[in-house]
Specification:
- This protein has 20 helices and 19 strands.
- By secondary structure, it is α/β, with parallel strands linked by helices.
- The protein is globular.
Length: about 625
């Protein structure tokens, strides 16, 4: 017999229904039984998802993608022969172990002289004499059986802004479950999904940013169900004429404090406060969280285990973020074409996967009195192990980033064209999680604007793995969408050098500009972008094209090349195509639609098409 049934029988068998304190005790027992059942059901479903995704976790561990539960930023020691390799590289033609200097053209329209040249050299180990072996390549574990592809495509379709059909269905079912249980017992789940060092997300195989939609929704539902609960008792006591008497009881007074705290958390976490007044959001959140836990325990002593669980989750997250933090000196340069700050931290060059991000805090008075209190996420634009260290592209998107770009502009006015800043970085966080791009036969990376950070790091990592014979990739295509063709100018040399590195996998880069040209635009002092005309830049595989890309056609092209190209990997069977997207919500929705529109037979022929949204 369940605890719910036992409590129900005890209630019906009590003399007189429930006399003096007996009724209250039976009500508490019934409530506890419901809470146990609700939590058992929710965490049982979570456990089922973890079990179903366990094979992918094994695949990630076997693919040598780093520790999934604890990744730490650091600096790898430089081999003693490094300088000899660099010297030899300068005496030979550009090969797979070299990169062009990254040049930042001056901001003037009349001048294309570069400043702040820094040689970007990636050193790879000697190539093994034998061909590609299936033993060296990472194992490919599909996210779902191939026969479920049509269902997955349907569930991925957006039904509301920022919500796919599967996400909407999860939220509606969660709402139904909460109607059966109590909202306060969900606080540990809400807190677990809010943490940056999200252990639950790691078990599920998703970054905290991928589960943030559920955290926001669960928090909103908890606040509004709590408000309904509170308003009901206020209305009941007011009608009975004993509101003052009831609210004076400590239990009820602390309940009112609890609801004030929860409403503060919700109100000041809206996008208006986060974007316009971040410090207000930060401090109100801190104050409300500190007051919430004792208020919950004093309002209902039975909530103490849940409050202690929240405190433990919050404390572990803060400790983990401190362990994953590094304070370093960064080089900063302003790139006027994209109006962003190029931040390079040479003393941190390992400990992350392509596609992951860090939270950046600037320790400088130039960011304002309280600027150092803010930390913001930025995708890492370099591969782990790179000679450049950790590179961030910080685009102007709000007040804080606006001050950072302005500071970079001021510091870049010195003789060397760059300045130095003390920074605090936390991470890495997020990233592709269980998606191992190097285990696929083909990859399509679609990025918009500053999303090129994701594209650069992913391409660099894939090429590095390919040169070490640790990749199944045959064909990579990077599609970069910008407003103005001049925005791509600073990155043309580095994109060209990446293409020249791709000896065993073909790399193609397509830059699309969406702003119509009325005249020819000069790029790098020798190339002209002509209205309505696609052109090749510096290399046949690097093209500049007006208008938006046909994403469906490009996915089909990647599928065909992943099947048709050999590149010494003919013995490797097709293992699917990975599609990564980083950019505005509208771009992500377009890619989701394009993946769904691709013919099912083509997907089956290549081994499936999987999507990762950054």
């Amino acid at each position: 017999m369940s605890a719910y049934a036992t409590a129900q029988n005890a209630t019906t068998s009590a003399p007189g229904g429930a006399s003096s304190g007996g009724g209250h005790e039976m009500e508490e027992a019934l409530t506890a039984a419901i809470i146990i059942q609700v939590n058992a059901f929710i965490f049982g479903l979570i456990g089922l998802v973890i079990l179903l995704r366990f094979p992918q976790l094994v695949g990630v561990l076997r693919a040598k993608c780093g520790r999934p539960f604890l990744q730490l930023l650091g600096r790898d020691s430089v081999p003693p022969t490094l300088q000899k390799k660099i010297a030899r590289h300068r005496l030979t033609k550009l090969s797979s172990a070299t990169r062009h200097p990254l040049e930042f053209p001056a901001g003037s329209d009349d001048s294309h002289e570069s400043f702040g040249k820094r040689e970007k050299i990636t050193i790879f180990p000697e190539m093994p004499a034998t061909g590609y072996s299936d033993k060296l390549c990472p194992p490919h574990v599909a996210s779902a059986p191939s026969f479920l592809t049509p269902v997955i495509s349907l569930l991925r379709k957006p039904v509301l802004p920022g919500l796919s059909a599967i996400q909407f269905g999860i939220l509606m079912n969660y709402t139904y479950i909460l109607l059966y249980g109590l909202f306060l017992c969900q606080l540990p789940l809400i807190f677990a999904l809010a943490q940056k060092s999200n252990f639950l997300g790691t078990l599920l195989g998703y970054g905290y940013e991928s589960l943030n939609y559920f955290h926001r929704y669960a928090g909103i539902v908890a606040v509004w169900t709590g408000n309904i609960h509170c308003v009901y008792y206020i209305f009941k006591w007011t009608n009975a004429g004993n509101f003052s008497t009831n609210i004076a009881r400590p239990k009820n007074a602390w309940g009112l404090v609890l609801m004030v705290c929860m409403n503060m958390l919700w109100f000041f976490s809206t996008s208006f406060w986060r974007k316009k007044f971040y410090n207000v959001f930060l401090w109100t959140h801190t104050i409300a969280i500190i007051a919430l836990f004792p208020a919950a325990c004093l309002h209902r002593p039975g909530l103490q285990p849940y409050a202690f669980a929240c405190v433990a989750l919050y404390g572990v997250d803060r400790i983990m973020r401190l362990v994953k933090s590094r304070i370093a000196t960064a080089n900063v340069t302003h790139i006027p074409q994209l109006d962003l700050a190029y931040i390079q931290i040479p003393t941190v060059n390992s400990g992350w996967r392509a596609g992951q991000h860090v939270r950046l805090r600037i320790l400088s008075g130039g960011m304002g009195v309280f600027g150092w209190t803010e930390s913001h996420p930025f995708t890492i634009a370099s591969a782990s192990g790179s000679n450049d260290g950790l590179v961030l592209l910080c685009k102007k998107a709000g007040d804080w980033t606006g001050r950072l770009v302005h500071l970079a502009k001021e510091l870049s006015r010195d003789v060397e064209g760059q300045g130095k800043l003390n920074v605090w970085v936390e991470g890495p966080f997020g990233g592709p999680a269980r998606t191992v791009f190097s285990s696929f036969s083909g990859a399509l990376l679609v990025v918009g604007g500053s999303g090129i950070s994701f594209g650069l790091s992913m391409v660099e990592e894939l090429l590095g793995k390919d040169l070490k014979r640790e990749s199944r990739i045959k064909y990579i295509e990077l599609v970069w969408i910008v407003q103005d063709p001049e925005a791509a100018t600073p990155f043309i040399p580095i994109l060209t050098s990446l293409i020249q590195q791709s000896e065993f996998s073909m790399l193609r880069v397509s830059i699309h500009y969406t702003r119509a040209l009325t005249k020819k635009v000069e790029l790098l002092g020798r190339i002209e972008a002509t209205p309505f005309t696609p052109i090749a830049i510096a290399h046949p595989n690097l093209t500049l094209t007006p208008g938006r890309p046909n994403l469906k056609r490009q996915i089909e092209s990647v599928i065909d090349n992943a099947i048709g190209l050999g590149s010494g990997k003919d013995s490797l069977p097709p293992t699917g195509v990975a599609v990564g997207v980083c950019g505005p919500r509208s771009l992500a929705d377009s890619v989701v639609k394009a993946v769904g529109d691709v013919d099912g037979a083509a997907k089956y022929r290549v081994g499936g098409v999987e999507l990762h949204e950054e």
